[in-house]
């Protein structure tokens, strides 16, 4: 699916109360590795989340090295890093919301075919953040989510945005 179609389908799911305030963007870098680039989410024209091939790659490389040293402090060279360390670094960074542009596209495709309850319970904070903006999340569910205190700043930011936009009905 083309980016414009994917973006439209995601943005069509955003609650009308915040839809005009949230925008999804993407850019490809022609000088980079086969068009790698970044995607970002804006709220009121301000960038609040970035999904970038280079940032995720650097974060994962650095974390893999930290995990390797932590698991074998006597070996400080880069040779012989087990694959499971890299896989663990990828899992940790994804749970932290550090993903590449291509992974972001995958998250969005998954978002379109996943029930809202599963999206709200996702391990990925980008998925949870988008889910709290979803029109399928009603005021009662927003109240429950607001009382649970999510630990990721992006989820908290999007939840606050949605609750503020729905404030008239959240005190019922």
How would the blueprint of this fold be written?
Blueprint: H1 3-13, H2 16-19, E1 22-28, E2 37-43, E3 46-52, H3 53-71, H4 83-95, H5 101-112, H6 116-120, H7 125-133, H8 139-148, H9 153-165, H10 167-170
Antiparallel strand pairs: 1-2, 2-3
Helix pairs in contact: 1-5, 3-4, 7-9, 8-9
Q: What is this entry, summarized?
A:
By secondary structure, the chain is an alpha+beta fold. It has helices at 3-13, 16-19, 53-71, 83-95, 101-112, 116-120, 125-133, 139-148, 153-165, 167-170; strands spanning 22-28, 37-43, 46-52. It has one domain.
Oligomer: single chain
Number of helices: 10
- Sketch the major β-sheet: 3 strands, antiparallel
What is the succession of H and E elements?
Answer: HHEEEHHHHHHHH
Q: Helical content, roughly?
A: 55-70%
Unreliable spans are: none
Beta-strand proportion: 5-15%
Please report the distance between the alpha carbons of the first and last residues: 41 Å
The helix/strand class is: alpha+beta
Number of strands: 3
**Overall geometric form:** globular
Residue-averaged pLDDT: 83
The neighbouring-strand order within the major sheet is: 1-2-3
Q: Give me the Rg, rounded.
A: 18 Å
Number of domain modules:
1
Task: Describe it.
Helix 1 crosses helix 5 (101-112), helix 3 (53-71) packs across helix 4 (83-95) and helix 8 (139-148) packs antiparallel against helix 9. Strands 1-2-3 form a 3-stranded antiparallel β-sheet. Helix content is 58%, strand content 12%. The longest helix is centred in the middle third of the chain and has 19 residues, at 53-71. By secondary structure, it is an alpha+beta fold. Strand 1 (22-28) and strand 2 form a beta hairpin.
């Amino acid at each position: 699916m083309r980016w414009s179609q994917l973006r439209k389908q995601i943005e069509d799911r955003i609650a009308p109360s915040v839809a005009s305030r949230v925008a999804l963007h993407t850019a490809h870098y022609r000088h980079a590795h086969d068009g790698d680039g970044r995607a970002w989410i804006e709220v009121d024209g301000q960038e609040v989340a970035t999904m970038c091939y280079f940032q995720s790659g650097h974060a994962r490389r650095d974390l893999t090295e930290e995990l390797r040293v932590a698991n074998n402090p006597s070996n400080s060279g880069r040779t012989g890093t087990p694959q499971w360390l890299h896989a663990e670094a990828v899992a940790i960074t994804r749970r932290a919301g550090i993903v590449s542009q291509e992974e972001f596209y995958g998250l969005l495709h998954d978002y379109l075919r996943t029930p809202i309850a599963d999206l709200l319970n996702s391990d990925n904070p980008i998925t949870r953040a988008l889910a709290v903006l979803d029109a399928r999340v009603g005021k009662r569910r927003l109240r429950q989510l607001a009382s649970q205190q999510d630990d990721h700043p992006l989820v908290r930011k999007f939840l606050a945005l949605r609750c503020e936009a729905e404030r008239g009905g959240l005190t019922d």
